[in-house]
Design goal:
3 domains; disordered N terminus; Rossmann fold; 8-stranded mixed beta sheet; alpha/beta; about 450 residues
Length: about 450
């Protein structure tokens, strides 16, 4: 628009300058005419009457020329003013059009976002299957070997120890502090999940190849037990603390959704939002009435309108439902996304209740993380951090997740004792993923049942 105004001003100047020069030209013409007349008067010696008549005519002609020049100058000024007014009006019209277009886009986005409002599903329900790789351990190791060529941040989990901690009544003891050392070198520091278990992978830590024994130490509320464990003697380590597990009428339960909000999710984002609305409402209405909080991290990719948006835990379910409705897909011009950064922020930024209760995270995405970004986090390090903090992660694969993405999602779920969940399609619920046998059920039913399973570990009889 500024360039248009500049071009208009240049046209006005080119038109106005010749008109402004008219008075000067008229004066010059008059001067020459007067000079010629004077010479002629001297040569012909006219009478005084004739001279007066000639001078009067010359004066009249000069005045007419001056008036014409003034008129042309006035016309030029008026034209310049009209052109400026026209340009100003055009600029205002352009700005108004831009504002109206922006308003229309905003209204359209709000219309799309509100289309998933309410807790009753208006779209076809998503169906899914799931696999627990920690239960199918040998099968999972074969899968890892078959796909070992994939570009991933690998962690050596080939040697695994399942650590179980119970109280004096034999009930599972969640949130017990567990450390594993080799001599003076501490290798692992974490907490048990709701079922009183955690995992230790010695080969994931450098310098452990020649270690023959480990020291296991378990602590909760000042009660402590230390056990020396021989390497390779058994795959399960057990500890018991001389205390009674605290019983709570309302179990603290933190649930966070880590949601891919890039453009590739656009075809399913409304169904996923609808499913999340159903999940949140049903968990909020569970008979066990947990002390429930919901949080969310939505993420896209570098160069998009945002990379991550963190919504901290909210104990008002209705407010969280509004948060879900506010999410829409966009950006993500290539296949991988900024999952590394999103996972880091999901683990570290929300105010997880780390000393008590249950902590669950549901990753929902259709693409692997970028592994080529400089100054980035590593999903492998972040999943180990989640494991240390007792954040169990369920990785849900949306349509289009490739073999690299499947491998990474299963890494994250297995390392944190979660499940790999995959949305299925068509009659019978088919999937391209290498998961062996599985059963199919509605995605919201599956997620709610997994949450109920976690809460059941803290029932009086567990």
């Amino acid at each position: 628009m500024n360039q248009q105004r500049t071009r208009a001003m240049r046209r006005i100047r080119r038109m106005a300058l010749p008109l402004l020069a008219l008075p000067i030209l008229a004066a010059a013409v008059l001067s020459v005419a007067c000079g010629d007349d004077a010479s002629q008067a001297e040569s012909e010696q006219p009478t005084r009457v004739e001279q007066s008549t000639a001078q009067a005519e010359q004066q009249q002609s000069m005045e007419q020329q001056v008036q014409e020049a003034e008129y042309q100058q006035e016309v030029a000024v008026q034209q310049q003013a009209q052109e400026a007014e026209h340009q100003q009006a055009a600029s205002a019209e352009y700005e108004q059009a831009e504002a109206e277009e922006a308003m229309q886009e905003e209204v359209a986005e709000e219309s799309v976002e509100s289309s998933s409002g309410g807790t009753e599903s208006q779209l076809s329900s998503l169906s899914a299957g799931e696999v627990n790789d920690n239960e199918r351990w040998d099968e999972y190791l074969r899968y890892r070997s078959e796909y070992s060529y994939l570009p991933v941040h690998d962690v050596d989990i080939s040697e695994r120890y399942i650590i179980s901690v119970k109280d004096s009544a034999g009930r599972s003891l969640p949130n017990a502090r567990v450390t594993v050392s080799a001599g003076d070198m501490q290798l692992f520091d974490g907490v048990t999940y709701a079922d009183g278990r955690t995992l230790f992978f010695p080969r994931a830590f450098p310098g452990t190849e020649a270690v023959q024994s480990f020291t296991l130490e378990v602590e909760r509320n000042g009660y402590r037990q230390q056990i020396d464990m021989q390497r390779g003697e058994t795959g399960e380590w057990s500890a018991e603390l001389d205390l009674q597990r605290e019983l709570s009428e309302s179990v603290p339960l933190d649930i966070l959704f880590l949601l891919d909000a890039t453009g590739s999710m656009e075809d399913e984002i409304e169904q996923i939002k609808d499913t999340l609305l159903s999940i949140a409402s049903r968990i909020n209405d569970l008979p066990s009435q947990p002390d429930l909080r919901f949080g969310m991290v939505a993420y896209r990719d570098r160069g998009d309108a945002f990379v991550t948006r963190v919504y901290d835990f909210e104990d008002d379910a209705n407010k969280f439902l509004d948060t879900i409705r506010s999410v829409h897909a966009g950006g993500g011009n290539d296949y991988p996304e900024s999952l590394n950064q999103a996972l880091h922020e999901a683990v570290h930024l929300p105010q997880w209740r780390l000393e008590d209760g249950i902590r669950l995270m549901f990753l929902i995405a259709d693409a692997p993380p970028h592994l080529d970004y400089a100054n980035d986090y590593s999903y492998a390090q972040e999943m180990m951090e989640a494991h240390s903090r007792g954040i169990k992660t369920f990785a849900i694969a949306s349509s289009g997740l490739d073999p690299q993405g499947e491998y990474i999602f299963r890494q994250i779920a297995q390392h944190t004792m979660g499940r790999f969940i995959f949305i299925v399609y068509g009659d019978g619920g088919t999937t391209p993923h290498n998961v062996g046998q599985y059963t199919v059920e509605r995605l919201d039913d599956l997620v709610v049942s997994l949450v109920e399973e976690e809460l059941a570990f803290l029932a009086d009889t567990q």
